[in-house]
Each structure stands twice: as C-alpha cells, then as structure tokens.
User: What shape does this take?
Amino acid sequence: MTPEAGAALGPWVVESVSPAAMADFAEVLADPNPIHLDPEAVKAMGLGDRVVNQGPANFGYVLEMLKAAVPGATVVDLRVRLQANVFGGDRVIAAGVVESVADGEHGTRILNCAVWLDVDGGARAIAGTASLILSQNP
Assistant: This one.
C-alpha cells in the first residue's frame, strides 16, 4: 500500500542518543572534532556540558524513520538543514508527512515528503525534504 498525500510518517524514536556511539561514529567518519568526544571541549565552546551528536548520525535517524514508515521504498533524495544540536542523552523523534504522490516510470510511485528530527522537549534539530520511489508491484 502506498501512503497518500497527508499521511504521517513515523514517529521513529531514539530513547537516548549514545555518547559511546558518537565515539564510534567519529572513528568511522575520521572526524576528530572534540565536541563529539569530550564534554570539556563542548563547555569551552559554550555549547553546554554534553557531547554533540554528529550531523550525519542525525540524518541517519531520519533515514531509519523513512525505512520503517515506507518499507521497500528507495530514498532517492534527502535535503535537510541542521537547525539545532542533538546532545548525548537526548531523546529524539524522527517523523514526517507525505506531501505528494505521483506516478513514476515503470509502475513506480514517487513520494515527496517533509521530514524532521525533534529533540524531545527541545528544538527541531533537522528539517527538510525527502523523495522516495516505491514499486507498485513488489
């Protein structure tokens, strides 16, 4: 079944963003920025006292939400803007809404969606759009 325009996507929740996972992700990305690893570096920059999650990890939460919300779809475009930080221990909620559905080539449907990632009780960390292609004949 293809979601129709106006259909809600998600929510997909991370109960507690893991500082240990940030360290692993920093290694994978070869990202030595100390704000992902050292609370003292975060304090020195005036950003608080908890490590800051990497932007690509936050994008991944949105992608996981899309994967769960529209099984079998292929994300062909993701355009997001970082609007606020996600810190170690934060609870984050990825969600979205289908804005339009159109016929594509070879029996596919194209879903254009608004997507976001919110810090529970806090700011919207990411906002943007995603386009997915879904086969009507799985």
